[in-house]
Structure to design on (216 residues):
C-alpha cells in the first residue's frame, strides 16, 4: 500500500514538474536559470562610492526601477562598495538596464554628465517593445504557456580618473514564462549579481534551485 502511494506521489510530482504551471494566477517556478555574459576588469576588492542610475533616461522615479536598483545595490554593498545618491567623491558609476528581448530593437544614445566628466554609451532599450514570446507545448501538443527572453544588464565605469573608463559589462539572458517585468526582480537580480564578480569573457550558465511563487 505504501509503495503504491509513493508511486502515485512520484508520478504526480513528475507530471507537475514537466507540465509546468497554470498561465494565470500564481505561477510556480521550481528553478530559475539564465546565461550570464561578462567582460570586466573587476577583482572583487573594489571599494569606494558608486552611483547607480538607470540606463534609460527618465526611469529614476519609476517604481519598478527602484525595486531593481534596491536589489542590485544590496549586492554591491555586500561586496564592499558604498552606494550613494549624489556625485560627491564618486569612484564608480553603474548603469542598470532590464526588460525583454523584443521585435522592436532600439539602441539609445546616452550621454551622462558626472561633474565635469562625460560618459557616452549606447544601451539597448528593453522596455519599449512588446515582449517577444515563444509558445511552449508538451509532448502531446498541449499549450503550456509562453516563454519570454528576459534580460538584465549592468555597465560600470571608473570615474576617478581624468577620463571615465568602462570596467565592467554584465548581462543575463533568461527564458521563462513570466512576462511581467515587475514580478522578476527576485529572479533576474540574483542571476546577475550572485558569485560577484562573474567569470570574465565566458558564457556562464547560472541556475538558482528554489521554489518561488510569483503573480504573473
Amino acid at each position: 500500500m505504501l509503495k503504491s502511494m509513493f508511486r502515485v506521489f512520484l508520478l504526480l510530482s513528475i507530471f507537475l514538474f514537466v507540465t509546468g504551471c497554470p498561465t494565470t494566477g500564481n505561477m510556480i517556478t521550481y528553478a530559475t536559470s539564465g546565461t550570464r555574459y561578462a567582460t570586466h576588469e573587476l577583482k572583487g576588492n573594489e571599494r569606494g562610492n558608486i552611483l547607480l542610475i538607470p540606463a534609460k533616461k527618465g526611469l529614476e522615479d519609476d517604481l519598478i526601477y527602484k525595486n531593481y536598483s534596491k536589489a542590485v545595490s544590496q549586492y554591491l554593498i555586500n561586496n564592499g562598495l558604498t552606494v550613494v545618491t549624489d556625485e560627491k567623491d564618486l569612484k564608480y558609476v553603474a548603469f542598470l538596464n532590464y526588460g525583454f528581448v523584443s521585435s522592436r530593437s532600439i539602441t539609445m544614445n546616452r550621454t551622462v554628465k558626472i561633474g565635469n566628466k562625460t560618459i557616452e554609451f549606447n544601451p539597448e532599450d528593453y522596455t519599449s517593445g512588446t515582449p517577444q514570446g515563444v509558445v511552449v507545448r508538451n509532448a502531446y501538443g498541449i499549450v503550456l504557456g509562453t516563454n519570454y527572453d528576459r534580460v538584465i544588464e549592468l555597465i560600470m565605469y571608473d570615474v576617478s580618473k581624468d577620463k571615465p573608463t568602462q570596467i565592467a559589462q554584465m548581462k543575463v539572458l533568461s527564458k521563462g514564462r513570466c512576462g511581467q517585468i515587475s514580478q522578476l526582480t527576485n529572479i533576474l537580480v540574483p542571476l546577475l549579481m550572485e558569485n560577484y564578480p562573474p567569470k570574465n569573457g565566458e558564457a556562464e550558465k547560472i541556475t538558482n534551485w528554489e521554489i518561488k511563487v510569483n503573480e504573473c
